[in-house]
Amino acid sequence: MVQLDSKPTTGRSAAAGGADAAKGVRSKGLNSNSVGLLGNSVIGVSTVAPVYCLTTTLGTTVAAVGLQMPALFLAGFLPMMLVAFAYRELNKAVPDSGTSFTWTVKAFGPKVGWMCGWGLVVATIIVLSNLAGVATEYFYILLGEITGSDWLAGLNDNKAAHVLTCLALIAVATAISYRGMTATKGVQYALVGLQLTVLAVFAVMAISKAVAGDAPGSLDFSWSWLDPFQASSWSSFIAGLSLSLFMYWGWDACLSANEETGGSEKTPGRAALLAMVVLVGSYLFTAVAVQMYAGVGETGTGLGNPETSSNVFQALAGPVMGPTLGVLLFVAVLASAAASLQTTFIPVSRTVLAMSVYEALPPSFTEVNRKYGTPGRAIVTAGVGTGAFYTVMTLISENVLTDTIAALTLMICFYYSLTAFACAWYFRKDFTRSVRDAVLKVVFPVTGGLILTGIFLQSLKDMYSTDYGSGSSVFGVGSVFVIGVGVLTVGLLVMLVMTKRSPAFFRGEVLTKETPALVLPE
Fold first, then answer.
1. Residue 10's closest CA among 514, 519, 510, 516?
2. CATH code at 302?
């Protein structure tokens, strides 16, 4: 039986009590100093799952913007980097594992903060299920490639086998996450190192073959590929930008692990920025390499071919790397999805823990495992919720599952933009303190928040159409719109229930709504 604390860990530790009191936050019993800068950066990269994101997004981005695909990856990096500065500054002042939830409560009050936390939690549960599904798919693809058995590869299409395998992967990821940051870090070094190395080899080989003229449909590199303003229309630009946002989402896991990171006030912010730089470099290099090799044609290996665009690495692994090395690319995609499946438990479980500690969720989620120093109840609940969600959605309709994932853009823009605005408001009194404070604490966050708000609104408009996503509709309204708005509406209803169960939090008596008074030395 798992041993959990018999009492909620809502009190302050003796060592951190003074600092916590000054910042208006509470200690939670997590295992401090269990990860450093490198480990935290690796967790940020892993949660994003770069290889998995590339294989599922390269083709769809080309479908939206054509040759400007690399430019959209660069454009998506801009608002994410601006928001990353907001996270870094807020974490310096309030290094709390509740991150977006805690910070927006302190800036805008309990109701806005609660909804921000809801957006993060529900988006993470949805993407966890998708990661498990992709890991399962590539598990059977890899088995088929290694054994040469079409029967083994075809098991992925067997709904019972697929769901059972998916649940097993979720259970393994839950168990590793439960054992704490030390176990997580060790696994991640291997998985992230593997996927980035294979990705680099693939990109170099693709460019080499394109330059040598060994690839049908190959293109010469053009600097115009990096110009996002050459996109054919505003709608196509926003569609491509939404896809690129999804490709960067997850770096904030670095900040969710702040209470378990050495130098909790500064190291997580630095780790997030480092992870972002690694991601944008990997994305641009791979995007250019793939586009040079395959082109954007609609036949053969062209990225405009639906058979290629749905799973780019599966289509290009053999032609680029050969039958032997090509298997490594399948391993890299599996490793990417599996690694992200594990680390994505960090933000959801730490957010749920913080919401419970501050009495915004039931007190049972404050339980922290004594041996591993992890929010055991929150991790297990997230694992069970992910498995149940994926099973139900798969049995109901794969179109519903696809549209639910497509609606993620709304949740991502929702909680990231709220966090960015919270930073500007929290530090508004520092605007005239120095040029650095004005730019990093107010101007950058507001700019990033406005960009994400614009994407949120445009996405709402586009998702209303029945042509968006799978093409399904509910009473003439696009199902992606219904799902996205519906998920946020459910959050409002749950919040109304919690106002009755936890009135003190919603009266602002638990987590204070203080404006910035704490300015840490540089």
1. 510
2. 1.20.1740.10
474 φ, ψ (degrees, to nearest 5): -130, 110
**Contacts for 289 with CB less than 8 Å, ≥ 6 apart:** 202, 203, 204, 206, 207, 210
Range of the domain at 249: 37-397
Sign of CA dihedral 271, 277, 280, 284: negative
Q: What is the dihedral of CA 494, 498, 501, 507, to 10 degrees?
A: -160
CA 413 to chain centre: 12
- Our measurement of the distance from residue 500's CA atom to the centroid of its chain's CA atoms, rounded to an integer in Å, reads 32
Say which residues have a Cβ less than 8 Å from residue 272's Cβ, sequence separation at least 6: 44, 84, 87, 88, 251, 252, 254, 255
Residue 245 in domain:
yes
Report the candidate in 335, 337, 334, 289 with the shortest Cα–Cα distance to residue 316. 289
Q: What's the rounded Cα separation, in Å, for the pair 326 and 337?
A: 17
Q: What is the pTM of this model?
A: 0.85
Q: How many CB atoms lie within 10 A of CB 161?
A: 14
58 part of a folded domain: yes
Is residue 253 within 8 A of residue 345, CB to CB? The reply is: no
As for how many domains the chain has, the answer is 1
Residues 34-76 pLDDT 10s: 778 888 888 888 888 899 888 878 888 888 888 999 999 999 8
Rounded Cα–Cα distance for residues 48 and 191 (Å) = 13
